[in-house]
Amino acid sequence: MPEPFSVRVTVRGYETDTQGHLNQAVYLNYGEHARWSLLHAAGISQARLVGRGVGPVALETTIRFRHELLAGDEVDITCAFEWTDGKTFRIRQEVRKLDGTLAAEVTAVGGLMDLEKRKLVTDPREVFKELAAEPALFGL
Q1: In whole angstroms, what is the distance from residue 51 CA to residue 111 CA?
Q2: In a 10 Å sphere around its CB, with 0-12 CB exposed, 13-18 middle and 19+ buried, how is residue 83 labelled?
Q3: Fewest beta carbons less than 10 Å away: which of 20, 41, 78, 112?
Q4: Cβ distance 27 to 67 under 8 Å?
């Protein structure tokens, strides 16, 4: 199985809380950044999604904090899609320091909304296959 898609981020001082830790809400931003970076790497822009009449939606996000991150820490954020036979998919992400220390696990359940009908599309895999220049990045 290939390595999951990954993007590197440096923790910025303004993202930390009063204890000096990366603020818990910023993990959501990091996860979102990695997901959009994967879409971009696969050849899917926001304009391309809107042109197709769909948009990604987050239905649930869970974060498990494992190790603190401090300003200046560099981390790699992975992004791996898991597909079901239904309207939703799962995205598993890890936030790891460069020494391999697992800082957090982010699990998201998402779907693709038909922007006209305001309902989830029946098979998001097919839409990703249609739009992606590199569908293998989605495990397709």
Answers
A1: 17
A2: middle
A3: 20
A4: no
* Mean pLDDT rounded to a whole number for the chain: 96
* Cβ neighbours of 53 (radius 10 Å): 14
Find out whether 4 and 136 touch, Cβ atoms under 8 Å: no
Vertex 68 angle, CA 80 and 20, to 5°: 130
Q: Does the pTM exceed 0.70?
A: yes
Type of residue at 94: E
Using one digit for the tens of pLDDT, what is the confidence trace for 85-130?
A: 999 999 999 999 999 999 999 999 999 999 999 999 999 999 999 9
Beta carbons of 76 and 3 less than 8 angstroms apart: no
> Which residues make Cβ contacts (< 8 Å) with residue 138, sequence separation at least 6?
38, 42, 81, 125, 128, 132
